[in-house]
Amino acid sequence: MSNLNGWGLTARLISKHFGALGDKVSEAIANFDPETATEADRDRLAATLRETAQKLAAARSSFDKEHMDVVRLRELIANDEKATATLADRLASGKISEATVSLFCDELEANKARLPVEMQEEADAQEYMNELQKIVDAFSKQLADFDAAAKKALQNLAAAKAQKDLQQLRVERQEQLSNLSVMQSHSTALNALTRRAQNVSNEAAGLRIVADITQKPLDQAAEIDAIRKSVAQGDTTGETTLERLKRLSGQNVAVAAAAAPASTASVASAA
């Protein structure tokens, strides 16, 4: 600041803005519980954070200006103090008027008197900026806590919903199995179908018995017929080659013997 009016303005700004904002911030932090806060609570907290962040940006700019005012004023005082020796020599030699030197001294004294004020304004601006920074940090932590709690709550909700769906599926499955069991034990249609299948099975068994009884004489007759055929044709089963030759030789002799008397009879008749 370049004059005392600047200090008054800074003090009023700190009292007005930080006082009201401090009460608002304190109330918001005290009433905010991340575990139970709603989305509307978070939105209000976020809005206050944005407002505070804007004030923090302005406070930083104000502090930078106050700091540069102090730096420039100190440099000016230091340079003027160095120039006092030169001015004293020129005043003694009559190279500069006393009025000019007196004006220079007045400005130097005024600047030295103003330096503590400028430094206080710088300190006040820094304190204001630091307080706003603490508030922004507190709000940021509260929002982070809320988001973490909300994420955890959503995860718990998803897990609970999945567990509910699983239990619902289990209940439905148990009901289906129970209904199927009841249907199997009490269903008229199934009972009738079972009895029909048993009746058909009994009928098939009866028909098989009748068929077996009817088939038995036929099998016996076929067996007797086969025996007769084997006797008529001669049972040659299991004979050796030599036995076969003898058998065949015997048949030829028998045929020849049977033919000889017939020839003799024919000769006798002719004679």
UniProtKB/TrEMBL annotation:
Q: What are the coiled-coil residue ranges?
A: 143-203
Keyword Coiled coil set for record: yes
What are the entry keywords? Coiled coil
Entry superkingdom: Bacteria
Q: What is this protein called?
A: Phage shock protein A (PspA) family protein
Taxonomy of the source species: Bacteria, Pseudomonadati, Pseudomonadota, Betaproteobacteria, Burkholderiales
